[in-house]
C-alpha cells in the first residue's frame, strides 16, 4: 500500500514508524521542517518531501496521484482538511484520514464529506482518544489497559496479577470454576518479566504477571477479581494540565467524581473554570509540593498529569506518588521515558502515539478489519476482524477455532455474533459475518492474520 503521511511531529513519526515496518507499505512523509525530515529518514526507511502539506505541487511530488491512503497529521486542523480536499479533488486519493483537534470542527460531521465538505473519510482526535483511554482506566481501578471491541460489547483488559487474587498461584484451567454461572472469560496473553508466555490450561498465574483477558463488558470487574483484589472506585481525582486533554477528561468525570484541575497558565486556568461546571480549577504549578499538600494530595485516589511537557508530567506524578496519592498516571511521549518510569515511580505511563496508531492501522489492514489496538507500546496488537465467505473461499468460516492455523503467538479471544458474545474456545465454529477478536503477542505476524481473513475464490 502506498501511504502519504502529512506531518512529522510526534504522532506523524509514530505512524510512519509503525506503517513502514510492514513490508507491503511504501511510506512518504511530508513536512515543512527539513531538519525534522532528515532526522526521521536517518531512523526509519521512508521517503520524505519538504514543503507545505496544503500545496498541490507538494502533494503531487509526494506521489498523491497513485497513493492509496493519505494521513494528514499536522498540528493544524485547517491544513489537514484542505490537504484531504486537494487529494480528492485533484488526485482522487481513495482514503483520506485527518487529525482534527478542535472540538467545534469535530462537532460538525457535515464538513467531512466528498460532496459538501472537505472529503475527509475518517477524522481522528488524539486528544479525544487519550481522554477516553484514561477515562476507562479511572472507571476500572487496577487495570493497566482497557480497550473496546464490537461497539463496546467486548473488552480486552490488561492488569498485573497480585498475591491475594483467587486465581493467582493456580492453573488457568481453574478459571471457569471460579466464575459465576453465565460469566465467561478467556486469557489472551500472559507476560512474565517482559516475556510472552502462551496461556495454556496448565499455565499457573504468578504474582507480577501481566495478564490480558477478554470478556463481555458487564463481566469485567468479576474477572478482574480473580487476578487481584478489587480496588475501591476512584472518587477523588486531581488533573494536572488545563489543555484539550485535561479539560475533556474533567468534563467526562466531573459528574461522577470529585475533580480538581491544576493549570499553571492564568489564561488557560480562567478558560477551564469557565467551561467546567463541577470541577475545582486551581491556578498553580502541579509540581509545587506546598500546593499539592494544601489540596490534600495524600487523600486523592488518582493524579493524572496531562500537560504538554512530559518532563513536568513525570516530575509532578512522581511527587504526587511520594506525597501519598493512591495512583498516578503521566502522559509521556517518548517510549524510552515511559518504559523507564512505569514502575514504582509511576503507575501508568500514557502514550498518546500508541493510543492513536490503532485508529490508523484499522484502515491499513487488508481484509475486513473493524478495529485495531496497539498494545505494549507497539510490540503487540489486538485486532477485530470480520469473517467473510464460506468453507470453500475462507480459511476461517465453517472451521472450529482449534482447526484454524494461527501464527505463533496469536490467540482468538472472543467471537461476536450479532448480540451474542462467545469466548474463543477450541470447539467454537466461526460463521460468516462473525467479528473475531484476536491477540497477537508479536505484531510481525499481522500479515499472516490478514491473509486468514481475506476470502477469495479459492485459498488452496
CATH classification, class level of the largest domain? Alpha Beta
Please, how many domains? 4
- CATH topology heading of the largest domain: Rossmann fold
Whole-number mean pLDDT: 89
Radius of gyration: 23 Å
Describe the structure using short key phrases.
Rossmann fold, alpha/beta, 4 domains, 460 residues, 6-stranded parallel sheet, globular, Alpha-Beta Plaits, 15 helices, 29% helix
List the helices and strands and how they pair.
Elements: E1 2-6, H1 10-20, E2 26-31, H2 34-43, E3 47-50, H3 56-61, E4 69-72, H4 77-91, E5 95-99, H5 103-106, E6 122-124, H6 126-139, E7 143-149, E8 154-160, H7 175-178, E9 185-192, E10 195-197, E11 210-216, H8 220-227, E12 236-240, H9 244-253, E13 258-263, H10 266-275, E14 279-283, H11 289-294, E15 302-305, H12 310-322, E16 327-331, H13 335-341, E17 348-350, H14 352-361, E18 369-375, E19 380-386, E20 410-417, E21 420-423, E22 435-440, H15 446-452
Parallel strand pairs: 1-2, 1-4, 2-3, 4-5, 5-6, 12-13, 12-15, 13-14, 15-16, 16-17
Antiparallel strand pairs: 7-8, 8-11, 9-10, 9-11, 18-19, 19-22, 20-21, 20-22
Helix pairs in contact: 1-14, 6-9, 6-14
How would you characterize this protein structure?
With 460 residues, the chain is an alpha/beta fold. The protein has 4 domains: 2-124, 3-Layer(aba) Sandwich (Rossmann fold); 130-227, Alpha-Beta Plaits, CATH 3.30.70; 236-350, 3-Layer(aba) Sandwich (Rossmann fold), CATH 3.40.50; 356-452, Regulator of K+ conductance, C-terminal domain (Alpha-Beta Plaits), CATH 3.30.70.1450. It is built from 15 helices and 22 strands. The protein has helices at 10-20, 34-43, 56-61, 77-91, 103-106, 126-139, 175-178, 220-227, 244-253, 266-275, 289-294, 310-322, 335-341, 352-361, 446-452; strands at residues 2-6, 26-31, 47-50, 69-72, 95-99, 122-124, 143-149, 154-160, 185-192, 195-197, 210-216, 236-240, 258-263, 279-283, 302-305, 327-331, 348-350, 369-375, 380-386, 410-417, 420-423, 435-440. The strands form 4 sheets. Strands 3-2-1-4-5-6 form a 6-stranded parallel β-sheet, sandwiched between helices. The protein has a 6-stranded parallel β-sheet with strand order 14-13-12-15-16-17, sandwiched between helices. A 5-stranded antiparallel β-sheet has the order 7-8-11-9-10. Strand 12 (236-240), helix 9 (244-253) and strand 13 form a beta-alpha-beta unit. The longest helix is centred in the first third of the chain and has 15 residues, at 77-91. The radius of gyration is 23 Å and the shape is globular. It starts with a strand and ends in an 8-residue tail after the last helix. The mean pLDDT is 89.
Amino acid at each position: 500500500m502506498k501511504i502519504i503521511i502529512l506531518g512529522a511531529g510526534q504522532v506523524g513519526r509514530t505512524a510512519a514508524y509503525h506503517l513502514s515496518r510492514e513490508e507491503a507499505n511504501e511510506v512518504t512523509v511530508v513536512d515543512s521542517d527539513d531538519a525534522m525530515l532528515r532526522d526521521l529518514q536517518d531512523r526509519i526507511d521512508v521517503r520524505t518531501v519538504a514543503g507545505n502539506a496544503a500545496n498541490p505541487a507538494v502533494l503531487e511530488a509526494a506521489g498523491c496521484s497513485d497513493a492509496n491512503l493519505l494521513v494528514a497529521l499536522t498540528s493544524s486542523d485547517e491544513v489537514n482538511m484542505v490537504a484531504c480536499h486537494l487529494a480528492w479533488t485533484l488526485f482522487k486519493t481513495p482514503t483520506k484520514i485527518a487529525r482534527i483537534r478542535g472540538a467545534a470542527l469535530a462537532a460538525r460531521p457535515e464538513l467531512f464529506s466528498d460532496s459538501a465538505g472537505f472529503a475527509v473519510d475518517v477524522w481522528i482526535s488524539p486528544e479525544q482518544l487519550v481522554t477516553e483511554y484514561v477515562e476507562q482506566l479511572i472507571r476500572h481501578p487496577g487495570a493497566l489497559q482497557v480497550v473496546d471491541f464490537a461497539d463496546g460489547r467486548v473488552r480486552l483488559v490488561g492488569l498485573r496479577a497480585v498475591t491475594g487474587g483467587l486465581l493467582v498461584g493456580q492453573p488457568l484451567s481453574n478459571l471457569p470454576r471460579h466464575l459465576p454461572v453465565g460469566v465467561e472469560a478467556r486469557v489472551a496473553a500472559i507476560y512474565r518479566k517482559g516475556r510472552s508466555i502462551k496461556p495454556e490450561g496448565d499455565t499457573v498465574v504468578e504474582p507480577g504477571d501481566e495478564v490480558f483477558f477478554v470478556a463481555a463488558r458487564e463481566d469485567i470487574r468479576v474477572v478482574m477479581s480473580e487476578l487481584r483484589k478489587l480496588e475501591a472506585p476512584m472518587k477523588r481525582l486531581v488533573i494536572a494540565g488545563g489543555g484539550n486533554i485535561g479539560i475533556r477528561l474533567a468534563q467526562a468525570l466531573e459528574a461522577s467524581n470529585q475533580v480538581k484541575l491544576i493549570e499553571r497558565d492564568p489564561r488557560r486556568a480562567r478558560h477551564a473554570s469557565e467551561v467546567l461546571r463541577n470541577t475545582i480549577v486551581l491556578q498553580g504549578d502541579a509540581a509545587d509540593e506546598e500546593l499539592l499538600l494544601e489540596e490534600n494530595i495524600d487523600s486523592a485516589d488518582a493524579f493524572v498529569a496531562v500537560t504538554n511537557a512530559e518532563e513536568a508530567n513525570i516530575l509532578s506524578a512522581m511527587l504526587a506518588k511520594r506525597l501519598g496519592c493512591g495512583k498516578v498516571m503521566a502522559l509521556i511521549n517518548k517510549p524510552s521515558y515511559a518504559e523507564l518510569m512505569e514502575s514504582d515511580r509511576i503507575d501508568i505511563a500514557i502514550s498518546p502515539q500508541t493510543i492513536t496508531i490503532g485508529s490508523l492501522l484499522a484502515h491499513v489492514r487488508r481484509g475486513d478489519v473493524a478495529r485495531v489496538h496497539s498494545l505494549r507500546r507497539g510490540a503487540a496488537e489486538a485486532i477485530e476482524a470480520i469473517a467473510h465467505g464460506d468453507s470453500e473461499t475462507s480459511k476461517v468460516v465453517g472451521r472450529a477455532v482449534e482447526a484454524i492455523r494461527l501464527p505463533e503467538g496469536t490467540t482468538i479471544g472472543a467471537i461476536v455474533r450479532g448480540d451474542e458474545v462467545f469466548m474463543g474456545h477450541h470447539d467454537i465454529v466461526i460463521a460468516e459475518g462473525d467479528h473475531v477478536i484476536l491477540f497477537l503477542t508479536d505484531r510481525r505476524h499481522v500479515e499472516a492474520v490478514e491473509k486468514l481473513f481475506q476470502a477469495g475464490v479459492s485459498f488452496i
